[in-house]
Specification:
The chain is an alpha+beta fold. It has a 19-stranded mixed beta sheet that branches. Helix content is 18%, strand content 40%. The chain has helices at residues 47-54, 75-81, 105-118, 159-165, 199-204, 256-270; strands spanning 22-28, 31-37, 64-70, 89-95, 128-133, 136-143, 146-153, 155-156, 169-172, 180-186, 190-195, 212-214, 222-234, 237-246, 250-252, 277-282, 285-293, 299-305, 308-314.
Length: 316
C-alpha cells in the first residue's frame, strides 16, 4: 500500500477523502469491524482508505470493513437479485488490509445488527432477513441471544485428497515442532483446518505471521488450528477450541466461517456418529455451529453467536 502524501491527509492523519465519514464500530465474539451506511452506493473506498480506517494505531482499528449498500447498486448484488429478489441489502466486506473478501460469518451478524440499529431494516425475534454477499445469499435469523446465519453449503476444496487421505495440505507455523496435515474447506471463502493434540500446543503456536500452506488454495486461505475436547462430545454437542490466522488480517479473536470450517473438518475426522451440533471456543467467546439440510438438497452450516455495536463517530 502506498503511503499518502502529507497533503492528502486530514487533521486526524487519515486520508482526506474520509473526512466527515460517519461510522459505527461493532464486533461478534471479538472479531471487530468498522461499518458504514451507504444505501445508494454513492461512496467508493480505495484499499488504502480501508486499511487506514482499520489500522489499530493510527485509525479506528478493526479486523475488517463493512459497507451497507442496497444490492441493486452493485454488480454482484444485481446478479444475486435475479434469483433472490428479497436480498435488498448487500454486505460489501473488505479485509483489514483493504482487500475485497467473499464473506465473514461474524461480520454478517454484526452487519444485520447495524441495519436494525440504523433503522434500515426491521427484524423481530424468530424472523429472518436475506443478505447478499460475495459468498452468495445468507439468511440471518434473530435469536434471543444474537443472530443465527445459514452459511450455505460447505465443500472440500480438494475433494479427492480429502476422501482418500482426510487431508490435502501440509501446514507449518512458528511454534510448531513439525509441519502438520491440514484439510481445506470452502465456506464461500477458503479455510485450511489443522488439528492439534493439546491446548498448550495451541497456545504456543505463533500466528503473528501467516502459516505456510502447501499446496495452498488458489486465492490463499485462512488457517484454523483446533484442539478437540476430551471427551469430544458433551451432552450431544461437539466441543472445540480454535485460533485462526485470517488472510489479509492476521490473527483475529474470532472467525465465523473459520469456526464452521473447523467443525466441518473435525466432524469428518471423527467419523460415523459425530454430532451435528458443535460449540467452538475462540479467544473472543463461543460460537454455535449446526449442520442442517438445505432447500437445495445439500448440507448447510448454521452459525450462531452475539453481535454488538460499541461506538459511533465521524472521521475528523
Amino acid at each position: 500500500m502506498s503511503i499518502p502524501s502529507p497533503a492528502a491527509l486530514s487533521a486526524s492523519g487519515l486520508p482526506l477523502a474520509l473526512t466527515g465519514l460517519s461510522f459505527a464500530k461493532g464486533h461478534g465474539t471479538g472479531n471487530d469491524f468498522v461499518l458504514v451506511a451507504d444505501p445508494d452506493g454513492l461512496s467508493e473506498f480505495a484499499p488504502g482508505d480501508v486499511a487506514a480506517l482499520c489500522d489499530r494505531h493510527s485509525g479506528i482499528g478493526a479486523d475488517g470493513f463493512i459497507r451497507a449498500v442496497r444490492s441493486e447498486h452493485l454488480p454482484e448484488g444485481q446478479a444475486l437479485l435475479q434469483t433472490n429478489p428479497d436480498a435488498e441489502w448487500f454486505m460489501d466486506y473488505r479485509n483489514g488490509d483493504g482487500s475485497v473478501s467473499e464473506m465473514c460469518g461474524n461480520g454478517v451478524r454484526v452487519f444485520v445488527h447495524f441495519l436494525l440499529e440504523e433503522g434500515l431494516a426491521s427484524l423481530a425475534p424468530g424472523e429472518a432477513l436475506a443478505i447478499g454477499t460475495r459468498g452468495g445469499l445468507k439468511t440471518v435469523t434473530r435469536t434471543p441471544d444474537g443472530y443465527a446465519v445459514d452459511m450455505g453449503p460447505w465443500e472440500f476444496i480438494f475433494p479427492d485428497h480429502a476422501a482418500a487421505k482426510a487431508m490435502d495440505t501440509v501446514v507449518n507455523a512458528d511454534g510448531l515442532e513439525v509441519p502438520r496435515p491440514g484439510l481445506s474447506v470452502s465456506m464461500g471463502n477458503p479455510h485450511t483446518v489443522v488439528a492439534l493434540a493439546e491446548l498448550s500446543e495451541l497456545a504456543a503456536t505463533d500466528l503473528t505471521k501467516a502459516p505456510s500452506v502447501e499446496p495452498a488454495p488458489e486465492n490463499g486461505t485462512n488457517v484454523e488450528f483446533v484442539v478437540p475436547a476430551e471427551p469430544l462430545v458433551l451432552d450431544g454437542v461437539g466441543q472445540l477450541t480454535m485460533r485462526v490466522h485470517e488472510r489479509g488480517v492476521g490473527e483475529t479473536r474470532s472467525c465465523g466461517t473459520g469456526a464452521c470450517a473447523a467443525a466441518v473438518a473435525t466432524r469428518f475426522w471423527a467419523g460415523t456418529g459425530a454430532p451435528d451440533a458443535w460449540s467452538v471456543a475462540v479467544p473472543g467467546g463461543v460460537l454455535g455451529i449446526r449442520f442442517l439440510p438445505g432447500a437445495d438438497g445439500r448440507e448447510h452450516v448454521e452459525l450462531s453467536g452475539p453481535a454488538v455495536l460499541v461506538t459511533r463517530g465521524t472521521v475528523l
